[in-house]
Amino acid sequence: MKPSFGASALLDLHVHTRWGSECAELMDPDSLPEAMSACGIHGVVITEHNTLWPAEEIARLNQGLTGRRVYGGVEVSTATHHFVVIGLDFMDKIHEGMPAEHLWRITRVHKAAMILAHPLNRTTTVCGNNTLPVLSVTPDAVEVASTVTHRRDEERIRAWGAKNHIHLVAGSDAHCIENLGQAVTAFPHLPENEKELARMIQNGLGLPFRRHQDRRIHVPC
Q1: What PANTHER family does the entry give (predicted)?
Q2: Distance (Å, rounded) from C-alpha 156 to C-alpha 169?
Q3: What is the pTM for the complete model shown?
């Protein structure tokens, strides 16, 4: 999949680091700015498991960057599914194992984007799954491509998204620098902040596609 419009910003919407995800000990967050340039992308969203980076730490990573940006998000492990959330300012009342309905209500209040992550993850982990979910809430988008989503499953996810009127995005779910940018979402421009990025996702302004599939390294979510 390649962008069909003049997209000027490629963003990896799903990235873990060793700062907040124990399973990402090989990902040094301070290497992200240089790695973005090396792999030709313009932005990454740090989405630790059930942990939101402090705003001042995100600002530190953005110091001196031009034409690139690091954003803060979170991957929330609800009682039934994993969701990447972008646009939250704090984690008050958000915790691992919470009902997806409660998370959805919080994202509506704070105008944050809620993305269903790796809905067909065949890895043998707690979020491993071979069937498309029946959701009690409607997220803003679904992750159609990642390093734990097989290409053969993408058409199933696309059809499911179309049936449920849910936008499509992509993010690598990178736990190591080698996976950074291997699944990205193309946007018309680089969002100024997390709130603008959330609005762009909710308005369906992103186009997901894969890059460097032969190099991907599967890591459990």
Answers
A1: EXONUCLEASE, POLYMERASE_HISTIDINOL PHOSPHATASE N-TERMINAL DOMAIN-CONTAINING PROTEIN
A2: 14
A3: 0.89
| Helix (H) or strand (E) segment spanning residue 202 | helix 194-202
pLDDT tens column, 40-58? 999 999 999 999 999 999 9
Residue 121 to residue 40: CA distance in whole angstroms: 26
Starting from the edge strand earliest in sequence, which strands make up the sheet with 69-77, in order?
167-170, 141-145, 113-116, 82-86, 69-77, 43-49, 9-15, 183-187, 207-210
H-helix or E-strand containing 38? helix 32-39
CA distances from 149 to 118, 162, 193 (A): 6, 18, 28
31 φ/ψ angles, rounded to the nearest 5 degrees: -85, -10
* Side chain identity at residue 47, one-letter code: T
Pull the structure tokens for residue 1: 């999949």
Q: What is the per-residue pLDDT across 117-139, written as a single tens digit (0 to 9) for each? A: 999 864 444 444 556 777 889 99
Task: Give buried/exposed letters for 191-219 (b at 16+ CB in 10 A, else e).
Answer: beebbebbbbbbeebbbbbbbeeeebeeb
Element (H, E) at 162: helix 154-163
Which residues of the chain fall below pLDDT 70?
Answer: 1-7, 20, 22, 24-26, 121-131, 212-221
Listed residue (80, 69, 59, 79) closest to 132, CA to CA: 80
